Amino acid sequence: MMGSKKSIFAFLILSSILTFGQGRTKEIGFITDNDLYTSSKNDMFYTNGLELFYRFLSKNENEKINKKITEFRVGQYIYNPRYINYEARDHNNRPFAGYLFAEAGRSFFYNSESVLKTDFQLGYMGPNAFGRETQEAFHHTIGYKEVFGWEHQVHNALGIQAHALYSKKLFKSHPNDFIDFNFQSEANLGTIFTGVSAGFLTRIGFKKLLPIYDSNLHDASVSSQAQYNIREFYFYAIPSVNYQFYDATIQGSMFSNTSPVTFDLIPWRFNAEFGLKYRHNNFNMSYSFIYHGKELKSFEMIGSFYGSIRLGYLLK
Predict the structure, then answer these.
(1) SS3 114
(2) Which helix (H) or strand (E) element contains residue 195?
(3) Domains annotated on the chain, with CATH
(4) What is the pTM of this model?
(5) Which of the residues 44, 79, 106, 315 has the least number of beta carbons within 10 Å of its own beta carbon?
(6) Residue pair 126/132 in contact by the 8 Å Cβ criterion
(7) Residue 300 in contact with residue 98, Cβ under 8 Å?
(8) What are the tens digits of pLDDT across the range 173-213?
(9) Distance (Å, whole) CA 8 – CA 10
(10) Residue 216 φ/ψ region, left for φ over 0, alpha for ψ in the -120 to 50 degree band, beta for the rest
(11) CA dist 7 to 10, 14, 16, 20, Å?
(12) Which residues are CB-neighbours of 166 under 8 A, at least 6 positions away?
């Protein structure tokens, strides 16, 4: 009887070890952006965003690449003027706009800790993006102030977008377990957004940093290898310079600009993002504070900021 109990106990331990030790090759989760995540008085410009994502490890036969990851997303972005009260409904210093999209992408994580991410989007800007309905429902649900002025939103436009991000690790000849530096550049090309940016990304670890190809920094937590008691916790910052060629949420459609409120861009901007990212085994989470410099030529226009919260869960 005692031997039987020991055998059952050993079997349970072995089963839990094997289950825990299996690779986690998929991740699901969401990203929610809102300027209210930084201040209850801040409700303007890029005011809300929601993305749902699913990513999985793809087949890889390139010896220089540590892993390839395929990803699918759906999302919605919402933009407001600075003031959304009744008295300001006819004096918008930024157009009301919504953008709804579906996305497919592929990421390449190299053994050198360089990263190349590419993705493509199809979507709609304007009333077909349901920005008004989403914002009004959200404000009603949380008991926040009523929004006025959506009748002036930009008109419908088809969104076709391509995006690429490249990151390269610097100072690899002098590695440090708790801090690293990376050069990062991005490009957007499409009927809604077209622009380029470049900056320097820094990670400062409260624990020993994972390699970029295993880190949640660029969403590389999925792995076919067994992972035991993985913990990741670090601060990151990326100041960058952006040149924006085109933004349909500000300028209206490039094909038939009949929108009632549009503005000219300020093409050169300084942007910054910093925050905390954390992982414990299957759970990924982060909070980011994001600042965008002045984007358009309008009265009382200033730089804007918002918060971003990300939660993900790894699956077998």
Answers:
(1) coil
(2) strand 193-205
(3) 2-315 (2.40.128.140)
(4) 0.90
(5) 315
(6) no
(7) no
(8) 888 999 999 999 999 999 999 999 999 999 999 999 999 99
(9) 5
(10) alpha
(11) 5, 10, 14, 20
(12) 114, 115, 116, 117, 184, 185, 186
